[in-house]
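Data availability (excerpt). The following record was deposited with the supplementary files.
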Amino acid sequence: MFQAVVQKEKSCYSHSFTLKPIILSGRTKIALATVCTPNFIKGTQALFYSFLKHHPTLDIDLVVICDKGFTPFRKTLKRLDIRFHQVSDELTEAIHHFEKESNTQGKHTSARFYSLELFRIGDYQKVLFMDSDMICQKGFPELFDRTGNFYAAPDRVFYNGLVRNSETYKIISPHSGNQQKVISPTFNTGFMLIGRSYLNYPTYQKLVHSLYDYEWRKMMPGLNDQIIINQYFKGQIETLPVHYNYLLKIQDTILRKEGTPAGESKVLHWVGNPKPWNFKKVASRLLRRKKTPPEWLTWLKSYTGYHMNRR
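Predicted structure:
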């Protein structure tokens, strides 16, 4: 448990902060969780730094969901007081079933289910889950005052005025097919605020066991946890504004539909590739542009800020 104390510094990149331990009368009741694999370490560093920078007085636990293979890499995050939560054997076995049924063995898809672990990470009143390819560019303490049990922002299908087939999760027109097989709206699972009512083992167990219920070869690929969570919590998710999960890949669509530019959002999300820390690919794209995208500079400031202020 800790507080981030913001201090001004001369760096052109960002403000600095140091972490000071605090003593509370009870347990921390809020956690920020993310999934981290070796390829996402840089993203996790930038994410946590940006969150703490914009929430300097919030008492919160930082939780990294990971598998056994990540153990040698934990030291890369020692800058922060992080609790590591290991994926259960129960989920690992269910993922093996998914890989067999979907013919995706060896395609590095397993980590896309690790977010299900947030439902059993501990005794918290609320857990905020954020993907490691996100960055905070503004604070949002007001979010934690909400009293519901599940909040998320829509996915790209919603912003494009489309829906999904509930059996295959494929994108379809809202005016086509059997409306009983439509699921809408659908939510991006990169940013989720979960309340205490769902933070328990029975919920976790049902989510994990649901991996055995799908004919995965018929499902739209690449959306693993998003399918599970949207189906299980259908009708129970309260919609957040785009500010909390700004999908940069479709920012032109969002600007037309919502009138919100990326610079006004609270959270930026790099869905798809390249990720902002894939410097070679990013540099190649930047060379073809006349101007560096400000959102990438925002990410870079948090990443360099983390490393400039390491103990």
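Summary of structural features: Residues 1-27 have pLDDT under 50 and may be disordered.
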